[in-house]
Amino acid sequence: MEQPTTIELAQLHPLFRRLTGQVAWTLFEEHEVDAETIGRFMDRSMAWLEYCLGILRPVLTQAPDMPPYIQILVDGKAWSAEDTTPCPTCSALHGAVIDTSHARAVSFLPPYALGCRARPKALSLEDFHALAEPWLLDLDAEPPAQKFTCDRDWLFSHPW
């Protein structure tokens, strides 16, 4: 079976299927960010997309090597000294685990917005059992909102 392209794979993720490069560029222009900064952001954004989809590929395609769990990790301050702390929604999800066999698992996969501090981490069964306090998300509940941008507007003022 042929592996899906990055674009085809992105169409399977709740955020990435809506968030094209053109949408991201326009969002930055609306915040009066210069073209050079937008270009630097777009370069990093593609690397971020590739990273996330690399981890999520087996889950999104229901591949035989699909990890049984995805853990949501939320990064704190990164890239600069300015305030890039995560939003309350993502902070509350830090450490939560998604059972990838659940029919609604894809709806809960991070990231949830452009500038989101949440990222996926694949967990084997052994990794899951090694967690000090495993916390499985209730996948029958409402998933986190998928927004174009994080409620924390730090990404528009960051010097990419």
What does this structure look like?
The chain has helices at 6-10, 21-30, 35-60, 88-93, 125-130, and strands at residues 69-74, 97-99, 118-123. The protein has a three-stranded antiparallel β-sheet with strand order 2-1-3. It is globular. The chain is 33% helix and 9% strand. The mean pLDDT is 86. The termini are far apart. The chain is built from five helices and three strands. It has one domain (6-156). By secondary structure, it is of the alpha+beta class.
List the helices and strands and how they pair.
Blueprint: H1 6-10, H2 21-30, H3 35-60, E1 69-74, H4 88-93, E2 97-99, E3 118-123, H5 125-130
Antiparallel strand pairs: 1-2, 1-3
Could you give a short description of this structure?
The chain is α+β, with helices and mostly antiparallel strands.
- The rough form would be described as globular
Radius of gyration, taken over Cα atoms and rounded to an integer in Å: 16 Å
Number of strands: 3
Mean pLDDT: 86
Compute the number of structural domains: 1
What descriptors fit this protein?
3 strands; 5 helices; 3-stranded antiparallel sheet; globular; alpha+beta; single chain; 160 residues
